[in-house]
Write a structure and sequence with these properties.
The protein has one domain. The protein is mostly helical and 81 residues long. It starts with a helix and ends in a 21-residue tail after the last helix. α2 crosses α4. It is 51% helix and 0% strand. The protein is flat, with a radius of gyration of 14 Å.
Length: 81
């Protein structure tokens, strides 16, 4: 994300980046925006999450159990003509 204007236009992407890169001390702040975190997961695009964060937040947000398969990370799609 290059600047504030882009961040304003893509708030879910900002939340996704916080979910990936914030440390454990900042997690209480994230829990205050749980609905935004759910939207970030639901609307994630390729590159927003790494596999570790993707799995962690699916478990923490009760989107899957430990025994269920992890949904695939969003992937970039290329249109070759």
């Amino acid at each position: 994300m290059e600047n504030i204007q882009e961040a304003i236009l893509e708030p879910e992407r900002v939340v996704a980046k916080a979910m990936c890169y914030d440390d454990v001390d900042e997690f209480p702040l994230l829990w205050k925006i749980k609905e935004d975190m759910l939207l970030a997961i639901k609307n994630a695009q390729a590159g927003w999450f790494d596999i570790r964060s993707w799995n962690y937040w699916h478990l923490m947000l009760d989107l899957k159990t430990i025994d269920e398969p992890l949904p695939d990370l969003p992937k970039r799609k290329f249109d070759i003509k």
